[in-house]
Automatic annotation (TrEMBL):
GO terms for molecular function: NAD binding; oxidoreductase activity, acting on the CH-OH group of donors, NAD or NADP as acceptor. InterPro entries: NAD(P)-bd_dom_sf (IPR036291), UDP-Glc/GDP-Man_DH_N (IPR001732). It holds the Pfam family UDPG_MGDP_dh_N. Gene3D superfamilies: NAD(P)-binding Rossmann-like Domain. It comes from Flavobacterium aciduliphilum. Residues 4-33 form the UDP-glucose/GDP-mannose dehydrogenase N-terminal domain. This is UDP-glucose/GDP-mannose dehydrogenase family protein. It comes from the Bacteria.
Length: 34
């Protein structure tokens, strides 16, 4: 079973973090531009 990671907020830190995790894990990102 592969680990799944959720990243909330794909701004200055969230997007690079999600991309880094995506090299090894399934990643879901969520962002609200408000």
């Amino acid at each position: 079973m592969k680990l799944k990671i959720g990243v909330i907020g794909l701004g200055y830190v969230g997007l690079p973090l999600a991309r880094l995790f995506a090299t090894q894990y399934d990643v879901v990102g969520f962002d609200i531009n408000g």
